[in-house]
Amino acid sequence: MKQTLIIILLCLFHTTLGAEEKLCPNVQTFPISTNQGKPFDVSKELAFLAVDEPINTFSEIITQFKTNPVSFANGVIPNFGNTAKQYWFCFVLHNDLNHNKRTITFIKYPLLDEVQFYALRESGEIKQNIQGRRYPFQNRDKDYRGFSFATELLPSETVTYFVGIKTDSSVSVPLMVAEEKHFDSYESLDTLMQGMFFGIVGVMSLYNLFVYFMVKDKAYLFYVNYLILASILFQLSLQGLLPVLFFPDSPELVYNAHNFLYFLFLLSCFPMSITFMNLKENAPLLYKGFMGLSIIPMLCLALLPFVPYRPLNQFGDSLSSFLAFYALFVSYYVSFVKKFPPARFYFFGYFMLIVGGLTTVLKYMGFFPVNVFTENAFQAAMALEVLLMAFGLGDRISVVQKEKERIQLKAEINKQKLIAYGKELKLAQKLQESTLPQILPKFPGLAIKTGYFPASLVGGDFYDLTVYGKQQICGLIADVTGHGVPAAIEAAMLKIAYMQTLAFANKPGKVLENINQALAGNYKNQFLTASAIFIDLEQKVLKVANAGHPALYKFNDLSKSIDVIRPKGKLIGYSKEGQYPEEVHTIRKGDKLLLFTDGIWDLWENGDSGEEALLNWLLERKAESVESLYGGIDEHIRLRNKEGPADDDITFILFEIS
């Protein structure tokens, strides 16, 4: 009995002395045969810790795992979002077979800047490899878009692995192990899937570029630009294929290209979305919102040389999330509120892209776990979006073609309306010409000069001069409201009323009174201003009546001021009871009279009153003949027309008593 107790105590003592301290604490060993050598996730038995200051020596790693609290993945793929910390992981592999096994430890996420692999063998040998996005591609043990580390395990050998991760992007660590032959099969399948995605996008880019040259619709050109920047170049960076295919020896270029392509991708969304949904016509306010937001990625591109990678990348993730929801809202509004059918393809395609994109962003930010769905959601959604957008563009062509036909039909209708309107204007012009005097009366001792300058083909002014008796002349000037045929008809009505009035009216006040009685109530409720004069050359008398019209100006060589003659009187058409009192003025040799419509004041208007400037101009040229005064007014009209078409008709009558 005593002998047996001694043997048990010796065995326990020997076991205690011979026990080795586990360098990767509290994790179970993975036997190689567990998954028949196929790729498997080591997160079930994975310990990790985070450090604020980078560790670069193996002894420091061992010290950290011995002295600091260690966390465990417990079957969840580690994902910490965007952080500046360095993370260290450890797990243990055991070759439970009786022959050597070459295994590949690999990380599928390609946006890690630095990945340090350490393999501690039972013999004490340490194998080390440092790779990452900021290291040459040749550092990786396999030509794989992720990070790979090869180890030869001897029969019954146990190897402890330590993996250090540091990156300016999101820290996502899908850590896998596989036998080399199974890894090669996995990599081949991964390459095939990537090839299918880029093949689909490449073919769709060429197809849509070909369609653009056929139909010349810029929406196709913007879509091709979007496919190249978002679905090809940015995806090449996001999937870690830039160093694999193009820049294996330029790690800094690969590193800096990511944010550059990220914001180019976001910028390319704006012209594509605006043209695809016809935002300028369908939703002007939302269009302005898109235009304003497009400035943000442009500013970010400009800031790339000056702002560190990490904050810009984090801002890009937040911006892309906001833009995704904004674009979804806009596409819903255009599709289902404004009822623009092509935008529905955009809505559903972009909805899928948003689901995939947000899944990826939230995975990178550490909110979603890393699994097959979250790893491939963005690419799968983008492939579906590419196909839906192609259908949408095809539908857009149909809608645009119908809209084009509708516009052409409307243009043809408008053309016919313009032709009819042109004929109407010509008719109105002929009608109006018939109302104006073709030959001016001639009297010994009286010079007359008239000017008529309509603002358009047909004006709203009217004038007439009629001989009344042997030594009398009756004049009427009026400003008729309206333009075109209505104005011409109203002028014709005024002409008829005026000619009927002259048969029994011998005073200007009576002329205006009779015209008012004839037109009031029968003039489409329109009003007109008018001034009537009687000049008696034998008696040397001027009689004037006014119906709300600008004054008559009277002056001569000796005038120190211009006589402004404007008797009181209501507008014609306002009431049949209107009275038009007269003013009587003596005229003598050398007197000049100017009757006009208010359009003439615009010729002298230059910030101040045009009437005051005209009076000063007449006073300065009081000694000139009516021909000279006419030339001066005509010159003012030509100068004003150089600045642009006149706003109002200009009509005037000049008299000179000689």
From TrEMBL:
Domain PPM-type phosphatase, first and last residues per copy:
443-657
Per the record's keyword annotation, is Kinase included, yes or no? Answer: no
Swiss-Prot/TrEMBL keywords: Hydrolase, Membrane, Signal, Transmembrane, Transmembrane helix
Protein name per UniProt:
Serine/threonine protein phosphatase
Query: Does Repeat appear among the keywords?
Result: no
Q: What residue ranges are annotated as transmembrane?
A: 195-215, 227-248, 260-279, 286-307, 319-336, 345-365, 377-394
Q: Which InterPro entries match?
A: 7TMR_DISM_rcpt_extracell_dom1, 7TMR_DISM_rcpt_extracell_dom2, Bact_Sigma-Reg, PPM-type-like_dom_sf, PPM-type_phosphatase-like_dom
| Domain of life of the organism encoding this protein | Bacteria
According to the record, the signal peptide region is 1-19
